[in-house]
């Protein structure tokens, strides 16, 4: 099973569309968004993903109520709140927007994968039993490079994807 991981889209709708199209084309069965979608229009774009979408709140959500109501209407988008703990393809996955919280989750050894966003910096590192990941920023504001990742849950191999 392959999953797409994105974060910090910050109203950059064209990049979000491109990442979703790439994830669909690659046959990803789940998409994980680590926060900072910002507005309800992004939820409609997430719904274009062919599989299940899992979303956690970031620190910069401009319209939480609107995002919540939009997600409630869609069968394939799930809002997990501030953190997600989920099993996919026999892998335990943790996701939160903040690096320090996901780092603490990784340190417990309870998860195979711990995901975060927030600092907009692409990161991947194996910490003992846990793969700690940040897909970088989909918006491309801070680093001037819009990135996301795909993860093979069988092998835990990560593919970095950059948008032009």
Task: Explain the overall architecture.
It is a single chain. This protein is α/β, with parallel strands linked by helices. The chain has one domain (2-163): Metallo-dependent phosphatases (Purple Acid Phosphatase, chain A, domain 2, 4-Layer Sandwich), CATH 3.60.21.10. It is built from 4 helices and 11 strands, in the order E-H-E-H-E-H-E-E-E-H-E-E-E-E-E. It has helices spanning 13-25, 41-46, 64-72, 99-107; strands at 2-6, 30-33, 52-55, 77-79, 83-88, 91-96, 113-115, 123-127, 130-134, 146-152, 157-163. The protein has a 6-stranded mixed beta sheet with strand order 4-3-2-1-10-11. 42% of the residues are buried. The model has no long low-confidence stretch (mean pLDDT 97).
């Amino acid at each position: 099973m392959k999953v797409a991981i994105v974060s910090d889209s910050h109203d950059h709708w064209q990049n979000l569309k491109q990442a979703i199209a790439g994830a669909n084309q690659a046959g990803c069965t789940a998409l994980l968004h680590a926060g900072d979608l910002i507005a309800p229009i992004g939820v409609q774009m997430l719904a274009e993903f062919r599989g299940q979408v899992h979303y956690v709140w970031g620190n910069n959500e401009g319209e939480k109520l609107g995002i919540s109501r939009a997600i409630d209407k869609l069968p394939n988008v799930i809002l997990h709140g501030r953190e997600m703990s989920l099993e996919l393809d026999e892998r335990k996955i943790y996701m939160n927007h903040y690096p320090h919280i996901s780092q603490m989750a990784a340190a417990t050894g309870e998860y195979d994968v711990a995901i975060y966003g927030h600092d907009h910096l692409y990161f991947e590192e194996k910490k003992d039993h846990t793969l700690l990941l940040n897909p970088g920023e989909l918006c491309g504001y801070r680093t001037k490079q819009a990135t996301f990742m795909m993860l093979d849950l069988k092998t835990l191999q990560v593919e970095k994807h950059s948008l032009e």
